[in-house]
Amino acid sequence: MSDASLTPLPESVAIIMDGNGRWAEERGEPRFHGHEVGAESVRSVTRECARLGIKELTLYAFSTENWRRSEQEVGLLMGLLAQFLVQERDEIMDNGIVFRAIGELDQLPPAVREEYERTRDMSAQNGGMILRLALSYGSRRELLRAAQGVARLALEQGEGAVEALGEDDLRRFLYDPSMRDPDLLIRTAGEMRLSNFLLWQLSYAELYVAECCWPEFREAQLHEALRSFAARERRYGKA
């Protein structure tokens, strides 16, 4: 099927990459094997989104809640993340991708933070799709941080400032104020919840739930989600 069947394309796509551990356990493999194969899905989906001309792709890679997992699994995940940041540099540069991250990045191990900053800085002048990883990310934490920023702003501006504040005043205190609101949210593994992901930014996103786990989500599954999006009429509350 041609790319024409996928249009109109969303400008911005967000994905909750769910089911890595479940996929591995169902195959008698350790959970970490699912994360390793899931990294291949990240590469495949990123490359295809860039090829199609999608402007932004935001992937929920590690939540604030994920720190509660076993020390062994967290350590393995951080190691895999550092490896990904190094190994994908050629892919990022070859596809002109701008690489960024959102979240409590100061919580990442120093070695991971260093590799992230290298990849971010190296890709900063590229002109292609923005690939954004949500790392140590929680939307309630982001909104609390933004509310604190707005409160400080109101105090600085004095009497009458609260009533004059608008949505853009809150947005400026989000992790990435320049981020487009996602047009399409994809979640894998059949789960139907937002899991504390982009609660502000997803206000008008179209939702698509794939039954397959993330390690099985590749170009064909992405195309199915994009065709579903293309068939929808977006009204934004209008009749």
Task: Using brief descriptors, characterize the structure shown.
239 residues; alpha/beta; Undecaprenyl pyrophosphate synthetase; six-stranded parallel β-sheet; globular
Q: How would you summarize this macromolecular structure in one to three sentences?
A:
The chain is of the alpha/beta class and 239 residues long. It contains 9 helices and 6 strands. Helix 1 packs across helix 2 and helix 2 packs parallel to helix 3.
* Strand composition percent: 5-15%
Shape: globular
Distance between the termini: 33 Å
Widest sheet: strand order?
3-4-2-1-5-6
Counted up, domains total 1
Helix coverage percent: 40-55%
CATH topology: Undecaprenyl pyrophosphate synthetase
The number of helical elements comes to 9
Q: Return the CATH class.
A: Alpha Beta
The Cα radius of gyration reads 18 Å
Low-confidence stretches: none
CATH superfamily: Decaprenyl diphosphate synthase-like
Query: Structural class of the helices, strands and pairings?
Result: alpha/beta
CATH architecture level-2 label? 3-Layer(aba) Sandwich
Q: Tell me how many strands there are.
A: 6
Provide the residue-averaged pLDDT.
Answer: 94
Biggest sheet character: 6 strands, parallel
Order of helices and strands: EHHEHHEHEHHHEEH
